[in-house]
Design goal:
The complex is a heterodimer of chains A (114) and B (112).
Chain A lengths: L4 E3 L2 E4 L5 E6 L6 E7 L5 E8 L14 E5 L5 E5 L8 E8 L8 E2 L3 E5 L1
Chain B lengths: L3 E3 L4 E4 L4 E7 L7 E6 L6 E6 L3 E5 L2 E6 L4 E6 L8 E8 L7 E3 L3 E6 L1
Parallel strand pairs in B: 2-11
Antiparallel strand pairs in B: 1-3, 3-8, 4-5, 4-9, 6-7, 7-8, 9-10, 9-11
The chains are: A mainly beta (114), B mainly beta (112).
């Protein structure tokens, strides 16, 4: 597609439920990133996929968070047993491989845990 | 010390003036530096990138990099009300990793 596509755009869930967030990167972008942004805060790194390499999961805040990327394209971020502190905007970005390419962000998924 | 630091602002600048945004970073091994603009309720948008010491100009925007002093700045000339946004500085992470570390952002307001 022309841009990074994320779905759903908004998600309200009850505390304790599992949620799945989807990201479809720009075609040809081998690098895919997940960040989250809490209200009025900066971007917090979660996980990074690059081609067929093992993902960098160093930013995942707990073992309730996991992500996968199938076929080197679409990625799904899963949050199990959601908590209120998980409420944030979850941003996916993609880029070409290499240090000198900036990211293109999707429009984000706003997650609200009630 | 945070890896990437920015003054959170708000920074208020009159229309037509030069807005100056600053960022410092802690990792001397960082090699790529980016500025993103984020309008309220929207996702960040890449506006400038810089990799070498000195200035890089693109229209009304100039990015400046000083690796010895570990700072990067963004100048916006002839500021317009549409430039009002939060500006995020991003630096590639530890030991040359491709993932970016973002500053907290500086909120800029251009007053007509």
């Amino acid at each position: 597609g022309a841009g990074v596509s994320q779905s759903p755009s908004n998600k309200v869930t009850e505390k304790g439920k599992d949620v799945e967030l989807r990201c479809d990167p720009i075609s040809g972008h081998t690098a895919l990133y997940w960040y989250r942004q809490s209200l009025g805060q900066g971007l917090e790194f979660l996980i990074y996929f690059q081609g067929n390499s093992a993902p960098d999961k160093s930013g995942l805040p707990s073992d309730r968070f996991s992500a996968e990327r199938t076929g080197g394209s679409v990625s799904t971020l899963t949050i199990q047993r959601t908590q209120q502190e998980d409420s944030a905007v979850y941003l996916c970005a993609s880029s070409l491989a290499g240090l000198y390419y900036g990211y293109t962000f999707g429009s984000g998924t706003r997650l609200t845990v009630v | 010390q945070k890896e990437v630091e920015q003054n959170s602002g708000p920074l208020s600048v009159p229309e037509g003036a030069i807005a100056s945004l600053n960022c410092t970073y802690s990792d001397r091994g960082s090699q790529s530096f980016f500025w993103y603009r984020q309008y309220s309720g929207k996702s960040p948008e890449l506006i400038m990138s810089i990799y070498s010491n000195g200035d890089k100009e693109d229209g009304r925007f100039t990015a400046q990099l000083n690796k010895a002093s570990q700072y990067v700045s963004l100048l916006i000339r002839d500021s317009q009300p549409s430039d009002s946004a939060t500006y995020l500085c991003a630096v590639n992470g530890n030991q040359g990793a491709q993932k970016l570390v973002f500053g907290q952002g500086t909120r800029l307001t251009i007053n007509p």
